[in-house]
Amino acid sequence: MARKSETSETRADKKGTWLTYRPDIKVLDCTIRDGGLINACHFEDGFVRAIYETCAAAGVDYMEIGYKGSKKVYAPKEYGPWKYCDEDDLRRIVGEGPATVKLSVMADAERTDYHEDILPKQQSVLDMIRVATYIHQIPTALDMIKCAHDKGYETTLNLMGVSVVQEHELSEALDILARSEVNVIYIVDSFGSLYSEEIQVLARKFIQVAGRAGKQVGIHTHNNQQLAYANTIEGLILGVSYLDCTMGGLGRGAGNCPTELLLGFLKNPKFHIRPVLQCLQDHILPMRQKLKWGFDIPYMLTGQLNMHPRLAIEAVEEGRQDFVGFYDDITAEE
């Protein structure tokens, strides 16, 4: 079937086409951070270093190396070092020489001792602090953003669970964030439930508000309905600048937009896919023998129902194949 031609109004709404070179695009690989949700951040140093070196060789702009989790909330005996990203651990990976790729960490609202655990920028190899928050946590998130900004970091605000936020609440939240110190405001499809039409609406809304304040917009997608890559592309064509991805789609549950797909799409000559392919071959694929992630029917169902994937994660870990029974279980109270 032939596709309908775009109207001039539709074209004007886009920041580029699939052939357009966009110098404002920044790629952020969060393989270690999002992947850490599968194995409680117990990645060996050699694996983390391989991801770092691959990001540098591939021209990736940022590598998210883990969390800044509170040791009062997350017991160190249960989690690996990338749940906390202490400075000594970071320097053990990246060394003391010139940085080859910018480093970021994620700080969850109400789960981070940010005043103490996030050092001033001049004392750290980190470049960016990303604050993840649900809408009811925004007051805390704003204080975290100000703290990180005042310490000298680039900042993002990742607004989670946007698919279940009411429109009037989202509008109010964006207006508040636009007046904050944050550099980038993220659309986060936490449940992998959004379709392209919804991404279009959200991208336009975020860009309109952020653009007036001189801020940029990012997108972080999950692959519950095998739309993570497509939705990321949809956002960037409309003007989203910061694009999250993971190598091999490694990430919680159904995983994320694959780095290799994204770099293969982008037209900026600074990006190189070959180092990522080498890393997939040498490090990511062997990891599938120990860790399970990626599309599965339970993830699809929670995505379609706009539900947090925790029940699907449990089902997959248990090896449930009774998809009808799982569907009946999760829809029983609807």
How would you portray this structure in words?
The chain is an alpha/beta fold and 334 residues long. The protein has two domains: 20-287, Alpha-Beta Barrel (TIM Barrel), CATH 3.20.20; 297-331, no CATH class. It is 42% helix and 13% strand. Strand 7, helix 9 and strand 8 (242-245) form a beta-alpha-beta unit. The longest helix is centred in the middle third of the chain and has 17 residues, at 196-212. The radius of gyration is 19 Å and the shape is globular. The model is unreliable at 1-12 (pLDDT under 50).
What is the number of helices? 14
At the fourth CATH level, what is the homologous superfamily of the largest domain?
Aldolase class I
Pairing-aware structural class of the strands and helices? alpha/beta
The CATH architecture term of the largest domain is Alpha-Beta Barrel
Short description, anyone?
The model is unreliable at 1-12 (pLDDT under 50).
Q: Helix and strand layout, with pairings?
A:
Layout: H1 8-13, E1 26-29, H2 31-39, H3 45-58, E2 62-67, H4 87-94, E3 102-108, H5 114-117, E4 128-133, H6 138-150, E5 154-159, H7 167-178, E6 184-188, H8 196-212, E7 216-220, H9 228-238, E8 242-245, H10 259-265, H11 274-287, H12 297-304, H13 310-317, H14 323-331
Parallel strand pairs: 1-2, 1-8, 2-3, 3-4, 4-5, 5-6, 6-7, 7-8
Helix pairs in contact: 3-11, 7-8, 8-9, 12-13, 12-14
Features:
334 residues; alpha/beta; TIM Barrel; 2 domains; eight-stranded parallel barrel; 14 helices; 8 strands; globular; disordered N terminus
